[in-house]
Amino acid sequence: MSFRIDQLDGIVQFQITRPHIHNAVNFEVMEGLELFLKRLDQPDVHFGVITGEGNKTFCSGGDLSVFHSVRTEQEAYAIHQRMTHILYRLATQPVPVIALINGTAIGGGAEIASACDYRLMRKDAKAGFIQGRLAITSGWGGTTLLQTKGMAYDKLLKLTTEAEPLVAAELEEIGWVTESFEGDKWAAFADFIHKMKTRHPSVAKAYKSILTAPLKERAILDRMLEEARVCSVLWEQQPHHDAVAHFLNRKN
User: Fold this and answer.
1) Cα–Cα distance between 142 and 113 in angstroms, integer?
2) Residue 188 burial (CB count, 10 A)
3) For the chain, domain boundaries
4) CB atoms < 10 A from the CB of 49, how many?
5) Which residues contact 77 (CB under 8 A, 6 or more apart)?
6) What is the C-alpha radius of gyration for the chain, rounded to an integer number of angstroms?
7) Which residue from 231, 27, 24 is spatially nearest to 132, judged by alpha carbons?
8) Crossing angle, helix 218-235 and helix 238-251, to 10 degrees?
9) What angle do CA 154, 236, 68 make, to 5 degrees?
10) Which of 3, 98, 209, 251 could form a Cys-Cys staple with 118, CB 3.0–4.6 A?
């Protein structure tokens, strides 16, 4: 199994369990995220949390060893469209979700974290929209989500076009990281939600409904899907296939 879902005391935990391959997203992880979203809709759920197994990687994005066989724009868009809908639902569902970033979060992993309400990141970890290194753009709607949530235009443009992973302190400065931590991630998570847990869960749900209202406009989903389409067009081009082949050869 590529993922694990647990529920305890009103908190649903989703963990990618592929540390041997940097917690990369495959089709099974996609299915797991869809199950996670269904669990978040239950009335007894007050918080959600997404993390990766181990202490090295939160999520490294799409599993290139799986998706390298995808060659055409149409094939790529089928995958990107599915993940875009997952991230849109993640961003707009009713309860607060925390990305518990225990290690590297790059590419699609950074997009998943961007769809969450909070990003709690280990101080020595790195994260970034590094898709540009593979001659593509973000393909799951993450850039649109960050812009809609109010990230400064120049900071966002620099983050995406430089395609470099940044440490937690740098990401906190530009407004991507909510808070950084040292030590055990679950202890940090418990500390982070401690005060919120003392309030009735209806309060957080009500505020999230107010603050995510702009995300629920149809135009936002359309923009996210256009982001996925742009990535798919670039995916089909030879520079992307060459970059992936170079990456996989270097890895091997």
Assistant:
1) 9
2) 18
3) 3-183
4) 24
5) 228, 229, 232
6) 17
7) 231
8) 70
9) 100
10) 98
Burial of 17 (0-12, 13-18, 19+ CB in 10 A): middle
**Which residues is 125 bridged to in the sheet?**
none
Task: Name the residue with tokens 């917690």.
Answer: 23
The CATH number that domain 3-183 falls under is: 3.90.226.10
pLDDT digits (tens, 9 = 90+) for 186-234: 999 999 999 999 999 999 999 999 999 999 998 999 999 999 999 999 9
Name the amino acid, one letter, at 252: N
Phi and psi (nearest 5°) for 137?
-110, 175
Residue at 249: amino acid letter: N
Q: pTM of this prediction?
A: 0.97
Note whether 104 and 58 are within 8 A (CB): yes
